[in-house]
Design goal:
Distance between the termini: 47 Å
Number of strands: 22
Structural class: alpha/beta
Radius of gyration: 27 Å
Number of helices: 25
Largest sheet: 7 strands, parallel
Strand content: 15-25%
């Protein structure tokens, strides 16, 4: 097919008049059944390079992408053009996913988006063999590379699949961020006869600024002073889930319409916020780096980082989500040299599990072969850790995957070699080096855009003429006693939200009086619970009452219940009685456990936490719960497994509404 004929189809189906030259070069090779790696900046139109060939091929194009937001966005757009596209992901129920798989088997779907983790699923692997697959697309292809900034073990399975395909089978791998080293690694893994196209990475509409601060207060105060003056809507990225709430609440206190987003929120809440971003529902969304990737919003006008990322690659990818319409866009990075290095080093240290955990898995598999969930429970480790360890042990030929009765197991290989930790140490050193490169960016005196593009392999950029260095415009924070006092008052009245999603009965959004680690609250709770410190002191009662009055205005509660203790004795009971006395809400002592449980903090994964509290609660004289609005008291909220189990139980007994009120919310909480 020549370009004129292709562009006639492009206009008719996609309402786009012509290809960029690079797009056409990629499309032409794909139509010939060739393999292509495309490295291009965000907003270039990489998706069109596979969507166009997909409508011409007879079968189904499979797109592997880790971005559920991208799946939803692109499926909606393709379907609006009359192209049958679907996606399979963990946010959909199993019946929906099964129906979509059957449609693909029936060759009724042109483009099917799936998560790389689906390659772990036996049902998917079996079904895929029955599909007429016309093309494989690997989105976010840097995840293939061990040296990429977001390596994912499940991408190794895609490589195994690619290596089984004939050389004439069309394949497209795309990414916006790949250094020359990562590019070489991807090329090696995708095999011979791979054509690579690397585009120009400059974002000429970006105005890049670095603001060095001497305290965390300065970041908050600058945002409150300046966000309103920046045109349009944008995203503020933080380093932790807790900070997403803290910054969003601070902005709200200063009449800046904002909300927060992180991976701890339930899927339907995240989906609604993604939709709100498209609709400009807020001036800004405060988020971890989970938001933005895969969302096609060309007019994000600003990106602000309150925490330095761990590499220039991460930074370029995250800021690349803004200004895709080519209009003026502000990009700001805060840096506090006294505090901002700690979190990146923690991420680097946590990027690979501890060596001892590898041996935990090896020793568990010496006893018997186990599934992933069984390994997670036996070793008492997080699912993410287990997935990384499995991939590393397989790559070192220490363990094998085996299949039995449509289920995947892992077993120790006979005469398996010893674990070699050297590759993990090499990777850690590489990540430390990358972090130093982003610190070099911060201390830069010449063009910032030139530095980022050079680092990513594009040396065509000299001076952007738009960054703070090129314009000789250094930004400082203007402090005053008034602003410092305002922030102090805010900090004293900061009450973390406890979000709830579907499937938890009549449980509603709750509130905590503090984050566990952000003040002395955690220390006080720990002393009372584990060091015979006596009852929780009155200042915690007063702080919790303030959180109650701020969050539950207008709700008339009928009854107070408290979570039965595991190891805190009468602490929560006594605390709940004080809350009851102050609020004049009746308290019941009829909520009990019917069997012993272990402390939830002993468990590192949500499977074990849920199992620990499943079906252990009961209430004597359940008629008392019928149509009641209940305030549920506890000391610490972590994963939420206990409160969610209680919410389902009380709903089943007729409770109309259950609102959690806790002393402290941890900054993490295992969700997988």
């Amino acid at each position: 097919m020549n370009r004129d004929k292709a562009e006639a189809i492009l206009q008719k189906v996609f309402k786009i008049f012509k290809f960029y030259d690079t797009q056409w070069q990629v499309v032409e090779r794909i139509l010939k059944g060739e393999r292509v790696l495309l490295i291009e900046k965000t907003g270039f139109g990489k998706s069109l390079c596979f969507q166009f060939p997909a409508i011409l091929f007879e079968g189904t194009t499979i797109v592997f992408t880790p971005l559920i937001a991208l799946m939803r966005d692109q499926v909606n757009k393709l379907r609006s053009l009359g192209i049958n596209a679907k996606c399979i992901n963990s946010n959909q129920d199993s019946n929906s996913n099964k129906c979509i798989i059957q449609e693909a088997i029936n060759n009724e779907i042109k483009v099917l988006y799936i998560a790389p983790e689906r390659m772990e699923n036996i049902e998917w692997i079996t079904s895929a063999k029955q599909m007429k697959i016309s093309m494989i697309v690997v989105d976010e292809a840097h995840c293939i590379s061990t040296w990429g900034h977001d390596f994912r073990p499940s991408y190794k399975r895609i490589i195994n699949l690619v290596n089984l395909l004939p050389s004439s089978f069309p394949l497209l791998a795309t990414t916006a961020t790949a250094t020359k080293r990562v590019q070489g690694d991807i090329e090696e893994q995708l095999g011979k006869n791979l054509y690579t196209y690397r585009g120009n990475l400059i974002r000429s509409n970006f105005h890049l600024f670095v603001i060095k601060v001497e305290s965390e207060e300065e970041k908050f105060i600058w945002l409150a002073q300046n966000i309103k003056n920046i045109e349009g809507t944008g995203i503020i990225y933080t380093g932790t889930k807790a900070d997403t709430q803290i910054y969003a609440q601070w902005l709200q206190e200063n009449d800046i319409n904002s909300t927060f987003y992180n991976g701890e929120l339930e899927p339907e809440i995240r989906e609604d916020i993604e939709k709100g971003l498209i609709e400009n529902r807020w001036k800004c969304i405060v988020s971890t780096n989970a938001l933005g990737m895969g969302i096609d919003k060309p007019d994000i006008r600003f990106i602000i980082h309150t925490q330095v990322p761990i590499s220039p690659i991460h930074y370029y990818q995250e800021i690349g989500r803004a200004g895709r319409d080519g209009k003026k866009t502000f990009v700001v990075l805060f840096y506090n040299p006294d505090e901002d290095d700690d979190l990146p080093y923690a991420f680097i240290d946590g990027s690979k599990p501890k060596i001892g955990n590898y041996y935990k898995v090896i020793n568990a598999l010496k006893e018997s072969r186990l599934s992933t969930i069984e390994l997670t429970k036996v070793t008492n480790m997080k699912r993410k850790e287990i997935d990384v360890i499995k991939a590393d042990l397989i790559s070192q030929n220490i363990i094998n995957e085996v299949f039995e009765n449509r289920k995947r197991y892992y077993e120790l290989r006979f005469n398996a070699p010893k674990l070699d930790p050297q590759p993990f140490m090499d990777l850690r050193e590489k990540k430390i080096c990358e972090f130093q490169k982003i610190k070099d960016y911060i201390d830069l005196s010449n063009c910032r855009m030139s530095y980022l593009c050079n680092y990513l392999g594009d040396d065509s950029v000299e001076n952007c003429e738009k960054c703070d260095n090129c314009m000789d415009h250094i930004v400082k924070v203007k402090l005053s006693d008034e602003w410092l006092e305002k922030f102090k008052i805010f900090n004293e009245n900061l009450f973390p939200i406890i979000e709830q999603g579907r499937g938890n009965g009549n449980l509603i959004q709750g509130v905590a009086s503090s984050f566990y680690g952000s003040s002395n609250v955690g220390k006080v709770i720990h002393k009372c619970k584990y060091q015979n410190g006596g009852d929780f002191p009155d200042f915690l009662v007063n702080q919790t009452l303030k959180a109650f009055h701020k969050s539950f205005k207008g709700i008339k509660f009928d009854l107070i219940l408290y979570v039965p203790p595991t190891e805190s004795g009468r602490l929560v009971k006594n605390f709940a009685e004080k809350i009851s006395s102050n609020l004049k809400i009746p308290i019941s002592h009829n909520f009990k456990k019917i069997s012993e449980t272990k402390p939830q903090k002993m468990f590192q994964n949500i499977y074990s936490k849920k199992e620990n509290v499943k079906n252990v609660f009961t209430y004597t004289n359940t008629i008392e719960l019928k149509n009641k609005v209940i305030l549920l008291i506890d000391d610490i909220y972590d994963s939420g497994a206990t409160i969610k189990e209680i919410g389902k139980y009380l709903t089943g007994q007729g409770a109309l509404c259950i609102a959690p009120l806790v002393i402290a919310k941890t900054v993490g909480g295992d969700k997988i």
